[in-house]
Specification:
This protein is of the alpha+beta class and 298 residues long. It has a single domain, classed as Alpha-Beta Complex (Nucleoside Triphosphate Pyrophosphohydrolase). Helices cover 28% and strands 22% of the residues. The chain is built from 8 helices and 13 strands. The strands form 3 sheets. Strands 1, 2, 3, 4, 8, 9, 10 and 11 form an 8-stranded mixed beta sheet that branches. Strand 1 and strand 2 form a beta hairpin.
Length: 298
């Protein structure tokens, strides 16, 4: 929703103001962003009341987005580029354009999306073939061991898929957005947002570690909770939820995702007196620095 004037969605947490001012003054070096992927898991809400999204609250001690509600996700890992894996759905070459990435990076982003979703929610976007998804509820002990192997980096997503004779179901993902962390953040990510329906027979399970709470929430309720100060979220999360609130079902979201023109968005923070303004490309006052393209790219 670039260009929206909703103040609540643009509220920059006060804890970040000092860092934003330091970067604006040139006192702090700007960090290079790491490629990352995040997945908005969706299910239909009861009685036709739109959709619900799965969110986690990161523990306050986390260096990035501590105490914030986020979607499952994380940075691309070298494991995500390893070897050949079973794959069904759009190829890496087909993912390249919507993800604004060369094919090898596009493949790694899709693999990271599936891996991080499994690590953080227990939902595995994979199956024995292109017509089915795996039933992880049948042997929770087995799958928790696989999850632990991913988390401690003794296995890659490819290893997990191969030893369980599964293929990655890239067809279950849809591209939704592409956000780059503003330059004032000490840790920055170049993140592709995906949407995916919760597979039949699977359930999201909260795992402690990087998060201390999880919940299914209607997007409209989450946005309103954020406006009231009850749910702390960074702007990309709020904007994504606000967009999802416009759709009546998961099928509607997936259809909309297929038709979306995903562009890279680099928010800019402008310091003006006592104000710290969070601006998006197209907003009045967005820096017209010639080093940036119209969509926020350097």
């Amino acid at each position: 929703m670039p260009g929206s004037d909703d103040a609540a969605m643009r509220r920059l947490p006060a804890a970040l103001h000092e860092r934003a001012r330091a970067v604006a003054s040139g006192a702090v070096e700007v960090a290079e962003p790491r490629h990352a992927a995040t997945v908005v898991l969706l299910r239909d809400a009861a009685e036709g009341h739109g959709v619900e999204a799965y969110v986690l609250r990161r523990v306050v001690t986390m260096a990035f987005a501590g105490g914030m509600y986020v979607f499952p996700g994380g940075s691309v890992d070298p494991r995500d580029t390893e070897g050949e894996i079973g794959w069904h759905g759009p190829s890496a070459e087909e993912w390249s354009a919507p993800l604004n990435a060369e094919a090898p990076l596009a493949r790694a982003l899709v693999c990271a999306a599936v891996r991080e979703t499994f690590e953080e929610s227990g939902v595995l976007l994979a199956g024995p073939d292109e017509a089915a998804t795996v039933d992880v509820s049948g042997d929770l002990t087995r799958w928790s061991h696989e999850q632990a192997a991913l988390l401690d980096r003794t296995a890659s997503m490819g290893d997990v898929l191969r030893r369980n004779q599964l293929v990655l179901r890239a067809d279950l993902l849809r591209p939704w957005a592409h956000w780059v962390t503003p330059e004032f953040e000490p840790k920055r990510f170049d993140t592709r947002f995906f949407v995916a329906a919760l597979p039949a027979g699977q359930a999201a399970v909260h795992f402690t570690g990087e998060s201390d709470e999880s919940r299914w929430v209607r997007p409209v309720d989450a946005v309103e909770g954020h406006a009231r100060g009850e749910l702390a979220m960074l702007p990309p999360t709020v904007f994504t939820l606000a967009e999802l609130a416009e759709h009546g079902s998961v099928d509607d979201v997936l259809a909309a995702a297929t038709a979306r023109d995903v562009r890279r968005i680099l928010p800019r923070v402008v310091v003006s007196g006592d104000d710290v303004l969070f601006l998006l490309p197209g907003d009045p006052g967005y820096p017209s620095d010639p080093a940036y393209a119209a969509d926020g790219r350097r």
